[in-house]
Amino acid sequence: MNHEQIHEEELVCSGHYACQGCGGVIAMRHALRALGPNTIVVIPACCWSVIAGPFPYSALKVPVFHAAFETGGATASGVRAGLDMQGKTEVNVLAWAGDGGTFDIGLQSLSGAVERNENIIYACYDNEAYMNTGIQRSSATPLRAWTTTTPELFSKETPKKDIVQILVGHKIPYVATASIGFPDDLQAKFRKAKTIEGTKFIHILAPCPPGWKYSSELTIRVARLAAHCKVFPIYEVFDGEHYVINLEPEGKPVAEYLAMQGRFSHLTERQIQEIQARVDYDWEHLLHKAMLEKFEFRGA
């Protein structure tokens, strides 16, 4: 890592309202260290609406614009336009949304912004459910996962929506996945994003201890295991066409990842095999798109 490009000042303050081990806070910390203080953050309704603290206070040392649940993309577009009118083109506009405000309620606003190729960074910190309102399922919730609206006997019957491919389909300049388990890679992607003109979308896996039902000190371990089990591949897509896989998974069985989380404790052996088969299929499909014989590996 080029440490000259990392801002040593912490832009996320202590005293925020996140749960212990919150992946969303870790993600924000790394993102802002890469982007620096010359950044405005747009936050539609999500856990971070609470984490940042009540107006007029904020746990972030950058300007924050709180927006309605469905308006992350539109609000960020408006902030970008206002800054450009003032000649402040060097300011980063970061839309920061959860999976509910990205995959579901905010998808129309996001799609409109990326279709216009607005010069913004849109980051989704994905904890795979509506955690802020009580752990309800979203379209980011994995197959067979427990939530309060998909309880054990009625666990989610459909796979997670592939939000990355939806954004890739818009042919924007840069789409990437990242994980708090690999901070060097995460920060590098935000540094890259701020140098690219047009819309940049970064999908970040951000495990949630109360929602995923694991002990809070295991957050990083869970995040890393998701990548090494191929549940959450780490890769980039440029201009909707060129795929680069950034991390070679260790190929651990999905059962190892599932066993760490209480939200999957009800699964039968057959259901675990079903999930493994889906993960293997998606990984092979990604390899086919990348058409790589070897990986670009940045390391942890």
From TrEMBL:
Q: Which GO terms describe its molecular function?
A: oxidoreductase activity; thiamine pyrophosphate binding
The keyword Endoplasmic reticulum belongs to this UniProt entry's keyword annotation: no
The leader peptide range reads: none
* Top-level lineage group: Bacteria
* Nucleus in keyword set: no
Q: Which UniProt keywords apply?
A: Oxidoreductase, Pyruvate
Gene3D superfamilies associated with the record: 3.40.50.970
Record-given protein name: Pyruvate synthase subunit beta
